[in-house]
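Schema walk-through. Below, the input block comes first and the output block second. Nothing else is stored per chain. Lengths vary across the set, and this one has 476 residues.
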Amino acid sequence: MEIPQYIDSKKLYDEFVIVYSRVSSAQQDIQKQILLAEAYVNNHNYKKESVIWLKDNDVSANKLSMDERPALQELRILLKQGLIKTIIVYSRDRLARNFYEYVSLVKEFYQYDANVIFTSTKQPPFSKKLSIEALYGIFAQTEGQSISGRRSDTNKQYPSNIFGYKKLGRKKDTKYVPDDNIQKELKTFLLSVKKVDNAESLFAILLTYKKILKNKKYDDLLRYLQNPFYSGHMETLYGYEQLRHVEPIISLDDFQNNQLKLKKLKNEIFDAITLASSHGIIIPHCSICKKEMTFRTSELGKSSYYVCKKKHQEFMIPVNVYNDLISNHLNEVVGSISIEKLKGDLLAYLRHLQTEQQQNLIVINRKLHKIHKEMTENYSAQSNAKLDKLVQSSRRIKENIKEIHIIIIKIEEARKGINDHIRMIKVNMIVEMQGFDLYYLCHLFFSKIEVSNNSLIYHVTFGRYFEKGDLDELRA
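--- output ---
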């Protein structure tokens, strides 16, 4: 009997049922969602082998997008393969807290003809009208924002840790009292802004208290000045609300006067802090000793800089100059890379992976065929225990086959994705790259950057793909 190359996973069962569950923190219990789903599965007599259980545990839909939630991504992959007819989930907000993400998911459910079952009694049935589901999506987003707002309000009233205070008692009896070890210096700092007339005088205050207040960062000091907690209040939509469990260090009037001054100087403050404390996109190395250089913050209004740990003092470079040089040179490096060489290697590797998985399918299908043959030819002679063992082996192999099919689909999608990216890069590579984070791009293309007395030496990750030859080092 000829063994087929593979078993089509679509034919293993009439339909697959996905049970998706999600909780946003480790403290929440996901079991409630699972128990309700189990009851639905049992009441509707689904075959256990056809039910796939997916869980996003400790995954916040407020903080993470759809693409960052592993189980939801697996659900979408199975959906696009046409394997899912039913999705069981506790409620709409388990799928998404964002209106646009929820609508996008619903469109995928419609496209692949999947029915959605909500096990929560408070959830209206899934509608085939997008306008209705979109409305429910708005409710899910509003509730998510409400939860996020409540957490923020709680943290404003009862922070777990705040500089300059000691937290006493628990729960409703919690009180915050100033820390005697730092209270005097902190109060003087918070009140010193009253004397500020311009950005330079504020810079001088921040520089002075950066050392006094345990060498805090400029950003930290600015947050202290903007936090009404130090006046025994919290900010709400309706103004400032008194926190009676907090002993204030300054008055509310002094705090509000500080905000008026900071508001006038905010752009200058932000630019100065950024300049004085910004790090290099990549940590530079000294071209003599090959060691990482040391970062130094500077006075406000001046650029931070790097110096050699071994005191090669001639090798000092300001961060703003260093980052500008890297950013400008990145375009030159990327423009020198041969897209066709890179594409060829990537496609060859993906073909290798695909062939490897297809060969794996052949081997596994032979095992499955052997088990099925043994089950049918010796059925009457086999004990129940042995037959059960063969059935279990068959199920494990079928599950393995399904997983391999998913891998093959992902590889094929990756191959298509490469073509899309190559096409985009060919049209307008440099322009498109401006939307990406320079930090990740530079770490991708530069393995190391060395500083000499008159140049930067770039060690390029993709040197072999350069149009001009197999270079791994450039000077600029």
